[in-house]
Amino acid sequence: MAYWLLKTEPEEYSYSDLEHNGSTVWNGVKNALALKHLRTMNIGDLALIYHTGKERQIIGVAEVTSQPYADPKLNDVKRVVVDLRAVQRVPQPITLRQIKQDSSFADFDLVRLPRLSVVPVSELHWQRLLQLSKG
Fold first, then answer.
1. Domain spanning 3-133, CATH class
2. Where in the chain are the domains?
3. Is the pLDDT of residue 135 over 90?
4. In 44-123, at which residue ranges do the beta strands (DSSP E only) sit?
5. How many CB atoms lie within 10 A of CB 54?
């Protein structure tokens, strides 16, 4: 199993929307590196959902429920999507400020490549983020 961080603009599609819908097609990814990461996802992988914009915080956990496939709304085989389902909200949102202040995240792609919308998360970072979510 692999771990990921997926960014979304909460006014476009929030974790609350995912909870309400139960599942969704994760689409709209355009960046080549982000698409490369999306293509390596597998069923059962877990993803932290991160709200961008004014919030800049991790809100919840989702599970990948499909292998990557071509976006059915686009005529471009390079643009892939995956299906996600809501798992649970984190007990306490984790802000970007908290992450940046923690030296264990110095090499984390969320910090190093701030515009990347699909970020791999190492098991060590995943465990540390879950710790931070408990306050």
1. alpha beta
2. 3-133
3. no
4. 46-51, 57-64, 69-70, 80-95, 118-121
5. 8
